[in-house]
Write a structure and sequence with these properties.
- By secondary structure, the protein is an alpha+beta fold.
- The chain has helices at residues 2-20, 34-43, 56-65, 67-76, 80-83, 85-91, 103-114, 118-121, 160-181, 190-205, 207-220, 255-260, 265-283, 316-331, 334-343, 353-364, 377-390, 397-416, 422-438, 440-481, 487-520; strands at 124-131, 135-144, 147-156, 227-228, 241-245, 250-251, 285-287, 295-297, 303-305, 311-313.
- Among the domains are: 97-246, no CATH class; 249-438, no CATH class.
- It is built from 21 helices and ten strands.
- Strands 1-2-3-5 form a four-stranded antiparallel sheet. A four-stranded mixed sheet has the order 4-9-8-6.
- Helix 1 (2-20) runs parallel beside helix 21 (487-520), helix 14 packs antiparallel against helix 15 (334-343) and helix 16 runs antiparallel to helix 17 (377-390).
- The two termini are 26 Å apart.
Length: 521
Amino acid sequence: MIGSIVHLSRNLRAGWVLAREGALALVDPNVLPPSARLTLRLARVIERRKAGDGAARLSAALTRLGPSYVKFGQFLATRPDIVGVAAALDLEQLQDRMPPFPREEAVRTIEAALGRPIDDLFLEFSEPIAAASIAQVHKARIKTPEGEETVAVKVVRPGVRAGFARDLQAMRAAARLFERVVPEARRLKPMEIVETLARSVAVEMDLRLEAAAMSELAENTKDDADFRVPTPEWTLTARDVLTISWIDGIRLNDLKAIENAGLDRVELARTVLQSFLRHAIRDGFFHADMHPGNLFVDAKGRLVAVDFGIMGRLGMKERRFLAEILLGFIRRDYRRVAEVHFEAGYVPPHHSVEDFAQAIRAIGEPIHDRRADEISMAKLLTLLFEITSLFDMATRIELVMLQKTMVVVEGVARNLNPKLDMWTTSEPVVREWMERHLGPIGRVEQGAQGLWTLAGVAAGLPDLALRAGRVLAQVEGVTANGVTLDQESLTAIGRAEARGNRWGTLALWIIAGLLAVLVFQ
């Protein structure tokens, strides 16, 4: 209970900062119950004047709250279904920049993680060249069998795990409260969102996992002539340290430098979009943070990605869903697009396929017969999320992350080539995957996999029958004798109930006191 009070106080502070910076202006009162609307109206009384416009207020509030909330804001940028497309695009610009910690602390972390003195590990080791909420980067040189090599060394910030753990506990408490107060919000799965953020942060804070993601993506793309990733130095990598090959390249948003290097912007735009689709549809594993700061082009014109802290993964079901959806929009086969949603179980069966196809047509038709540079993927996503809500389609976080990444990727590609036609550029990748997996060869492979699965099930039938018999015997015993509690158990339950009531009363008094402090501050 004391922990709950601590979480409550932290969330009240966060609420105060959000209200003060004007971030609550983004909340649509029409979707809230009457009591919540009154609370929102009262909270906006303390809004600071000239707090800025739109989602810039949310960015300012999250920056003021600290690194955990900055990371949360960046994560919300992948959830336009929650914050809206405009806010998601604004949050994409939220800068995860923190003051660097001293080189000496980085050296201590490296020596503790790798168990050797810094001079034994690196020929040179620079001052920090970039710093964020979780880690910072140094430039270094190492000796290899081929000679000397320049590398980038990423070092986890000291004390970051404890800080994130505290803030995530408070976010979990806030998500539970949000689900109770606004039942309609359960469709958005706020608890699942926080847990997804927690897993994402856990991956980012274990640099071995980032190295593994980098290695997996490199293996998937080893035959792609126009895309590459850095190589991790596994002997110089641990939980708190990641060493990778240094990337010499031009950032994709530096158009002047790209032109001066004689690189083809139109071809590079095609590479950006098709590489992402190949990773998502062909491999089911994609870079989910493909903003211009994480993308470079090298001297050979190859696309190079860095920073693999946020990755997306799609199963075969989701990949088939995505491929058929894209192909359906390209071919204007809205009936098939609707059927795919029902076949995947994303739309409840009590809805009409014909009605859903009609709604999909309302999304698809406006994007055809228009110039490529007039098609807004942001507007398309907004309409898709509205349709999702109308037809009770449960939020699929992996698909939302994919859709948001597609918007970012298209923005990067459009910056290189303003006349990019997403649909024409996407079709070869989608069609190739469909022919490979849904054609004759794919059908044979699926049949073989099905037979292998059935063989495994048949082999496990005897053990399954034994376990079923034991469970049935236990059920019969409970049915015959009932469930009994001894006197000691009953007494313990009574004590726990009384203790909970006392803590509940105390919590109410503390909440009242905290609210009074906030109101009269």
